[in-house]
Amino acid sequence: MIKAPRKCIFCGENANSQEHIWPTWLHDLLGPPPDNVRHNRQNFSYHPCDGTKVTGPTDRQGDQRTIRIRTVCNVCNNGWMNRLEGEVRPILTPIITGEKTTLNRGHVETLSRWISLKVIIAENEDPAIALTPQVDRERFWKDGTIPEYFRLYVAHNIGEQQMFYLRHSHCVAYSEGGPNPPLDGTAKNVQFVTLVVGKAVIQAVCTRIAGVAMEERASIIGFHDRCRIWPNPDDETSFPRRPRLDEDSIERVATIFQRYIDQSNATWAD
Question: Which of 1, 17, 51, 178 has the fewest Cβ atoms nearer than 10 Å?
Answer without folding.
Answer: 1
